Amino acid sequence: MIKIQDIQKSYNSTLVLDIKELTIEKGISFGLVGNNGAGKTTLFRLLLDLIRANNGQISINGEDVAKTEAWKQITGSFLDQGFLIDFLSPEEYFSFVGKVRGLSKEDIELYLNELEEFFNGEILGRKKLIRNLSMGNQQKIGIAAAMMGNPEIVVLDEPFNSLDPTTQIRLVKLIRKMQQTQRITFLISSHDLNHITEVCERIVVLHEGRVAQDIVTSADTLDNLKAYFAV
Amino acid sequence: MLINSFLSHQFKKARRSSIWQKNIALNVLLIFVGLVLLAEAIGLSILLAFSWHEIVSEAEVLSSFFKVSAYYFVGSAAIRFFMQQLPAMEIIHYQTLPIKKKHLIHFILVKGKFNFFVLLSFILFTPFAFKQVAYYEGTTTAWIWLIGMILIDLIINYFILYIKKQMVTNLKTVTIILVFLGLLVAGDILKWYNFSELFARAVSVMNHQPLLWTIPLAVFAAVYLLNYKFLYNRLYIEEIGSQKTDIANGSRFDYLRKFGLLGEVITLDIKLFTRNKRTKSILYLTPLFLAYGLIFYPNDAYSNDSGFMIFIGIFITGFLMLNYLQYAFAYEGSYFDYLITSGIDFQQYVRAKMFLATTVVVLAYFLTIPYLYFGTQILFINTATALFNLGVVIPMALYFATYNKKAMTLSRGSAFNYQGVNATHWLIMLPVFIVPTMIYLPFKWLGNPDGGLFVLGGIGMIALPFRRFISKMIVKNLNEKKYIMAAGFREKN
Fold it and tell me: Fewest C-beta atoms under 10 Å: which of B148, B184, B216, B448?
């Protein structure tokens, strides 16, 4: 369970994030939408203890993320290219991430085999370094690494970006499957309203750093969101 | 018109680059150093021009200078091979505009002419031309000779550019080129053949028959054309520039992995060093710095000054280690966000870095043992400095590395690359070199230099067991500074 309390973050005295209270239950898929500058990435960075909050705290399973480290073992994340070690080959990268997560070589292979469809034959065994792969393929690697080693929580910032249509659909399937079989809590931000309503059970709309809407996804959610953003 | 806007774009690019703006103090320092070097070059060239006839015998004032200039050209070819690059104007932006391809190429090539080395040649040869050549052979010949020398310099300039574009700069080609140039000079000194003599004679013949200068002119035109053709056929984004696709084949160090996370981090750092341009060029420079002692040890004026030898010892046994540790975290800046969210145990992570740094120092120390040839004193000095590096410098450098929050792009080479360098690095260099010398000197002045070495090495030994304690401090520092560091590393664009 993730608990966000009174969190505030400002840059040069401009408040970019201000959330009174937000609780994300275990095992749900949680979507975050909002225009550029709404604070989506800031919220994720605060959750992952990548930046320091001016106020308030975020806790995972009751532990403050800024003061403890145990949550790191159960949290996988991919926010941007800054999570990839680009001079490694995909295999080497997965092996490194896997080792850090405490997986054996066999575990890693097993996991990568599961993702064969998602990779679409473009990632493994191509003898290329990550830096020489396309953005889309780098994105696939980052997402795959984030979900490695049965994490409880997976945080993905705009995972559908730069993926080709086929892979986007496969990613939706993959996230659903992992969420159902392993009860992973997914936190996903996206500009793509279609995909986010497809994947997420609960959607929060951020506007200028505040929670503008908090919706349990239903059949009308997509239309409501479209109406909300069509200003 | 076109040239003007190209030039103004280039100027704006340089002027507005964030490195320039952020690091004004460093740039002022660099400009200052550059000006000092320039002044020294001018001074040296004037001094040479006015006293050359006193240095060498009257009969061969000119021919001896021509001979020396042959060596100069060989040396400048070698240095150029390391440092010079075709000015990589981002032609990509211009390629889709209706600008003729040949204009772009000529601009790149002509711009490549204006560089530090050509300027240096110009400075070195001009006073000699009008002082000595003009005295012996007249002003006209002086002009012709000067233009000829610059011509030869430009031939080398474009030739090196061409080879560098043609070949992949890897350790093999670097070695081949260096061995070739080395043999060229060594063979001359050992009188296997007389390349400098040949060069000097050719130059003086051409001075007497000015028409013969058309030969180097033709060579120059040919080399220029070669570059032009090469670029013309390759002016595609995927072929020009350094976006080569490298093949991943790095399982050589995989056996390290059985040491668990420690081994993983070490393997990662080794791959980082061997697969990125900037770190690779540090690796290429390392043998050169190991050979640094060859300049000083055989020379009594230096080797009797044991205070200076301490400095050299720290440098030789610590060069690679310092380059590794000072930027230990900055090198990993591009994926620092991953490192701090991955749950990697910082204690292990820091230990891995210390372990690798220790290996590097020990290795460098063993490689300097052959300097025993110049006397046992040098071995003692290097032993003491290596111990000091191990015990004191390693933890200190890593500690200060946590203060480094400047992003680096590792895909650029390291010669003259000051991206990611800040004042802390200059500050840390001072104690690293001065403190050991200060520890040593009082003993030397009291007439017991060996005692100084014992104390220096002893401090290193005593400090060794405390490294664990300091690594805890580094981890603490890392935990406090990680937000600032991560924010700095994210600001790469």
Answer: B448
